[in-house]
Design a protein that fits this description.
heterotetramer; A alpha/beta; B alpha/beta; C alpha/beta; D alpha/beta; B: alpha/beta; FAD/NAD(P)-binding domain; 5-stranded parallel beta sheet; 5-stranded mixed beta sheet; elongated; C: alpha/beta; Rossmann fold; 4-stranded parallel beta sheet; globular
Chain lengths: 348, 533, 234, 133
Amino acid sequence: MKKVLIIGAGTAGLSAASSLSERGISSVLIERSAILGGMATEFGCKGIRECVRCDACLARDKVNEVKRSELVERIKGANISKLSGKPGDYRITLSGLSLEGGKRQVRAGAIICAFGYEPFDAKLDHRLGYGLVGDVISSIDVERQLKATGRIVVPSTGNNPASVAFIQCVGSRDKRFKQELCSRACCKSAFKTSQFLKKQDPETMITFHYMDWRLNDPRENVRQWASGQNGVELLRSRPAEVFSGEDHRPTIRFAAEGDAQVNEKGYDLIVLSVGIAPSSETSRLAQVLGTEVDRYGFLRTIPGDACVSTRAGIFLAGCCSGPKDLVESAKDGAVAAHKAFQFLEAGL
Amino acid sequence: MTDETSIGVLICSWAGGKDGAFDLQALKDHAARSPLVTFVAIVDRICSSSGQSEAVELLKRHKVDRFVVAACSPGSKEPLYRRISSLAGLHPLGFESANLREQCAYVHDSPHAAEKAKVLIDMAIAKADLWVPPPYEDELPVTRRAAIIGDGLAAGIAAYELAMQGIDVDLIMRSEGFEWPADYLFENRVAQHRAEQTMMALAIHPRVNLVQAAEVVGFDGVPGSFGLMVERYGDILPIKCGAVVLAPHLEVKFKVLRGTQVGALLSSDLQDGKRVVILPGATGSGVGCNCVSARAVRFAQTVKERSRDSQVMLMGREMRALGSCESIYEEAQRQGIIFTRIEQVPVLEGESPCTLKVMDASLGELAVKADTVVMETSDAPQLPSLSRLFGVPMDQKGDFLTLETRLRSTETMQRGVFACRVRMGNMMAEDLMLEAKSAASFAAELLTKGTMEVGGAVAEVEPEKCSACLACVRICPYGAPVIGEAGKAQIVMQKCQGCGICVGLCPSKAIAMYGSSDAQLRAQASVALQGVR
Amino acid sequence: MIIGEQKPFKELCALLDGHKEILVAGCRSCVAICLAGGEKEVGVVAESLRLYSDLNGKEWRVDEVTVERQCEKEFVLDLIERTKGKDAVLSLACGVGAQSVQSLYPGIRVLPGLNTSNMGAPEEQGVFVEKCGGCGDCVLHLTGGICPIVRCAKSLLNGPCGGSQNGKCEISPDVPCAWDQIYHSLERLGRLDLLEELIPPKNWLPSRSGGPRKIVRPEAVLTPVEKELRGAKE
Amino acid sequence: MRIIGYICDHAAYSAADLAGQSGLRYSSDVVLIRLPCAGRLDIIQVLKAFRDGADAVFVAGCLEKNCHHVYGNIEARKRMEQAKGILDAIGLNGKRLEMFNLASNQDFKFKEIVDMMVKRVEELGRNPLAVRA
């Protein structure tokens, strides 16, 4: 049965589909929502004239690539409800309102899970004031603003912010919320967003409250960039609280490294860089598919065997198996496709 | 109009969108008035299977040699139009499209849309009239063999992945044997074990031909059938392949600045030098800032585990442990490994034991006593020579420059040549392995298919006009133009990716392009501007 | 090769004022390579002139052509049809080309579209640097293959002047000192001893001061008999 | 009014398609011509379009450093800068020609570009050659 079922049409799933179709293998791409592209379709380009490699546009390029392929059947508004059969000949029951009679059976030799992640819900960390204090928004809100309008503004005024603070590692490296891992993509996203802000208005003052700089691309250097800009401040601190200051601006209470004082500082806009949390579908799908979940709540990969799950014929790509950025997800998708192909061809 | 051309026009019944932004019949009548057109037809949903057969049938019946398809965007439908063209017995690229949906019906209000649709269809007809059949080979055979170049883990993994897919592999190594995965620092120990097993399996895999103690000295041929010249014990060995994977070995070394040698450091009976400080490499490690890498943490852990009463300290500005490497960092903290955040490169005073003068980020100036000081370094010595030989440029930090813009991050500007970048993510062995698998996967795509598409919208030199000025040779991102034996430029079709940069640049107007010739672009603009002046 | 650059567009328009039937003529040789007068530049200039004429009611009719080498009679003679009815040829070749067109078409005014600058080489795509002064008395064998006549601002023949600073010429920090380069070149060649050889005051007679230069290669020149046997070509 | 937009087959074409799919509206006076890459375009084409009466011409390519063909967009920009100089010298305002860079997911930016060029023609007035006819 030389057909692969791919769960999720985000960057990883699309990349897997396009890679399989290059090898002449047909696939069925299942997407829960009504559009292809996944989370990245909500991300905005952070370049003005020059690209800053935020990779947000690449998901759209992948959608185009998959739409061109005649070997990829795309089913939107559907989900997996049951799995039977055996590795090499799985039978999958799909359900969804878009399907005739709400159900459909698909046969596939292998399955690639690429159902992605959910951004950490910043409301869970009450102290940071998300949803409570005005002009405190999440990095996902910033992305949506950028995608829709090409600008980043203060929600309450609609103007360019004169000062912006980024609070990093919201829902990352944090045991309180069972989010122990580094989310891998948020340093990059905050860095690129601030590059955009500086291009949008060079007068914008930017402050980062961060723990460690961890850009995926070791060639990039935030410190070097910051030292070449006016008004970019890097504070190693984990803010204690965000509240509405006397001037009604969002204000951060924090202690910075090398400074025993507790400080309070107000900004026009505070961006919470939210981490990558396991999709709420993870445990249900793990149960349906018979694969394991690791202690961080992501699907488990076999160590040293990227993209291979604990069950034969089921492969993992993208953030469903742990935090990744867009480029890594795409790379993962191609490798998962490769593994699925090997499995179908040689029964590995 | 040239005498031989005959153009058919197919208008999709949905071209005006679901609401029908314009009257298709009026559009049809308009197109039919063009003297260039043999027939015009409205096809019921051209992308449906019945629509496709109807289109093929119409093209055959009217015996046209090219057609215009007025429908939705060729961005997603081009492969479909190609198939219609092929099935009708025409050149697979023998059509022009008028994007009546995305560029007209969806973006303009009704009366304007109807007028604009006429313009778009006229432009497509004018362009189709000037279409010249390009050289095109849909399925040019590719030598189904891969050459992997490099000594280390990445090369081994890439070779294994391809071999397991049934592809014959030549693994060309400088060394006499493998650099075993024991040299590498893994995030996960099970992974290390598996990698070791893979490397052992590789050595006896029937599809893997190990070419040891060898150096690649020459690279020629064209994408699809490359030729490598490999020097081995003074002999030159030719190797043919359809894909090349460049996977140079990344040497990670902990260079001793003071005290015990690294070997002794890792032995279980560390007598002296119990106070160990590990510094990030100031240069050469590839890390943008002075970061403590996950690799250095792994190294620190090994020292600590071998000699439990040693005091191990890692110094650096940041702790770089992306994703799941966070757990290594935590584990190390539990083991009592000390992390010191320093602002500047420390000053070393005295021999072993020595004093490190450091500027701690929170505590200010500190003097740290140490018996042993090591510095993390990494280097990929083979990378520059591979870069030169294969024409894959290097970036400023000494890694391969790949086509990141296409989300296929191990593809290079040289078609059929794939490169593993050595410094990605955490730069742990796992990252290297993923990079190798990705490169192998793209190479496998090409080799599994066994054929490649060549030609189509490519550039071509008119030799009698060429001044051999080298402008095209210097500008082409893909290295397609060369000065041929006749002393004139010629474009290697297999390498040309059809960007047309050389066409726009050539000072002698000696380069023409199929699919977007000067005449075609000119005709489109003229039609669009008809009646304006 | 010969390096030239286009005159500013306004100057071209001024040159052509009063003419009606214009032929823009390019050359596929040196000036094409230095991106000043190849077929593409001819196209750009011709189209710009047409646009200018249309906008300003000049009623110019601009035709365009590019020949293999405008300095060669045989190629220029091919223009005979294209020059018919023209009252001006705007030559985008070097001064040599422009003159050969004028000599073959004495009834048409030939206007120079380029300023012919020097003899040089492309340093990189789009950058052309003067390399040879055409002095007629070459000393490159003594100077490590670097011409002191054009590459030294003062054309000094026996070492640098006091203005040589850290390998740069005093006229500009972007200009390398030729004598510094000569020294290093000879050092690489292991022939620093050549610096001791005094280059005597130069004989400028073979240079421009002796009037237009002419080089005759007797073995290549057709003898009167040969010319007679080939028959009259002109 | 007639504006010609030369758009590259990658980011620009894709953004234009997305603009259509998102239902953004722009002036039907703008006609798009697809190029394999912005780097394909040369100055002569642009000059000829103006001579045919185009009120404005724009070129849209991928963002710099994100060109599908590595640096075709930068080549295009250099050429368009040169062309703007020529237009100024001719007496046809160089502002009638503009080069833009955008990403494939920027449908709104594509509309902004088109709207901006339309507005520019309104400010500068029509191409004198077009009006004369």
